[in-house]
Amino acid sequence: MNKGIHEGGIMKHETASEFSREDMPFVAPCRRLPLWAPFRWLRLGLSDFLKAPQQSLLYGLVVAALIAAVSLLAWFRGSQWIMFAMLGGFVFIAPLICIGLYAISAQLERGQPPLLARSLRAALRRHVGNEMVFAIVLLVVFLVWSRAAIMVTVFFPTDGSAGFREMAGFLAFGTAVGAVFAAITFSASAFSLPMIMHRNVDSVTAIVTSVNAVLRNRGAMLVWLTLIVLGLLLGVATAFVGLVLIVPLIGYAAWHGYLETIDADAFPRHEIGITATPRNVTPGETESTAEERVAED
After folding, report:
1. CA-atom Rg of the chain in angstroms
2. Rounded CA gap, 209 and 207, in Å?
3. CB 59 within 8 A of CB 248
4. pLDDT tens track for 149-203
5. CA distance 90 to 74
6. In the 3-class helix/strand/coil scheme, how is 104-171 assigned residue by residue?
7. Which of 17, 38, 196, 253 sits between 20 and 30 A of 230, alpha carbons compared?
8. Which are the contacts of 269, defined by CB distance < 8 A and separation ≥ 6?
């Protein structure tokens, strides 16, 4: 749905005040994704990385240092189980960490210089209300996740003669518990924060949209989750150095994944900020069509 109208050959886009909240859908529709769509997102993310290498590396360095500090603190002050729980949690709060990267991608696709300061301002000031609601929800889930991970250790076989069967049972139980939290948090966060960055929507609409899109594209989203987990493991295996490259790549790819998956044209733009300006589109096509064209190139 294209909300723009032509005035003297110039495309004019409606602002939030011109939208009726009663007429907006409760959830944004989503497109069906091919199984290997996440690899296309990574290709587009790599393109953004190469267009803004300094900003990407600086952002990745800060996030990698934060992850390393929290993980090492958990290891030395707690236990390896707490550290593993913390690393697992980073997989699902990554959209919150990467919101500044979404802003960099948004600037690039609008032909604007990728200013890191402007990206951080968009991440920390423009949408802070909805971000805080989302962060509180994730924090509660993450704390319950951490507690459950610690309690699972109660079932760890302490008998010196414990064999493969006992260990397999413990690992299977721990994996099942973690999978429940993973499914909930990943489904809620996969597309919600990019949508909050892109359009003037509330947190509930964004979360419900994300869950709906994940459930309708389970195969592609399982591939995407696997790529995120493998990237995190690779980053940790390189003493957190690899995260400097991996975090920006995943952040940019997540933004392109949102644009390809969610059709948010029925929702108003932000009146100020980066996404108040439409993306570069050719005459006669919507932003959604433009994204499909870019993905096919």
Report:
1. 20
2. 5
3. yes
4. 666 665 555 555 555 565 666 566 666 766 777 788 888 888 988 998 899 888 8
5. 13
6. HHHHHHCCCCCCHHHHHHHHHHHCHHHHHHHHHHHHHHHHHHHHHHHHHHHHCCCCCCCCHHHHHHHH
7. 196
8. 13, 14, 15, 16, 199, 200, 275, 276, 278
Coil, helix or strand at residue 210: helix
Q: What is the DSSP string of 196-244?
A: HHHSS--HHHHHHHHHHHHHHTHHHHHHHHHHHHHHHHHHHHTTTSTHH
Comparing CA positions, the residue from 89, 237, 75, 81 lying closest to residue 174 is 81
Domain limits of the chain?
42-296
What is the CA 124 to chain-centroid distance, rounded?
Answer: 16
Phi, psi of 4 (to 5 degrees): -90, 155
In the chain, the N- to C-terminal Cα span, in Å, equals 23
DSSP 8-state code for residue 126 = I
